[in-house]
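Lab notebook: predicted structure, single chain.

Context: the supervisor wants predicted structures on file for every construct in the current expression panel, including those that have not yet been purified. This is the next one on the list. No modifications to the sequence; it matches the entry in the shared construct table.
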Amino acid sequence: MAQDPSHPQPISSFVAFGLRAEVEKIAPGLHVVATPIGNLRDITLRALATLAAADAVVAEDTRVSRNLLAHYGIATPLVAYHEHNAAVMRPILLARLQKGESLALISDAGTPLVSDPGFKLVTEALAVGLPVTSAPGPSAVLAALVVAGLPTDRFFFEGFLPAKSGARRTRIAELASIPGTLVFFESPRRLAETLADLAAVLGARDAAVARELTKHFESVRRGALDQLAADYERDGPPKGEIVLLVAPPGEEAPALAGPALDDRIRAALQKFSLKDAASIVAAETGQPRRTIYARALELSSEDKRE
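Prediction complete. Output recorded below exactly as produced.
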């Protein structure tokens, strides 16, 4: 059907460097778009074109995303998609994609699917044969990794550790032998106690606390885990968003055995459950957890008989 010249189709556009750029319609499908983690200038021209040309922008928090779109003069409608409405919205979004629409998926900041609900939308879109493409860009994980001063050849992103200390130490023990830099997200109010738990389980490994990356008050504090724990315990919770990085394990220390190993196990049993103590000592010594657990069980039984 010919277009009615009296009702022309609106032209999609964005504004950058004081200039308005018109953009062409993008292909149907789900477009996963990385957005700035703090500094609004950290966005690609492709990302701007995708956001401007999409039929809708699917955003975790429309209040946050509206600021980004307004900054670049983008008028694309916003659709909220977050953990509280995902089950209801996902079928609606999939239906729109099946009709041939183009949707741009963004998170509050950084690359979608990293600690946000976008993963299920992507997997279900792929499961029914819908196209999914990526417009790559900012990532808090990589931004922190390159300034931490820790090994970058291999790293493991854990996200948030458990909120309670016992569960947190158990999980840290499970990560202890990974031969790469560990990367975590953490809330400022839990930072000091998380650093203390990391130091208790992993020892005096080098670490870095990256705060407010790409923003005006960006800072990176580096040091041993125990020292960083003491610093933040003294200074109080910092402000802003935190990425915490921990160096990989170093050269293996000589294996403990006999009375020295028993002393280590007994010390752990005084603070933790048998299960957690076994995990922590296994991580500290590099010995098999089942071996440590069996010996901890023996020592616990011996101590009860005395």
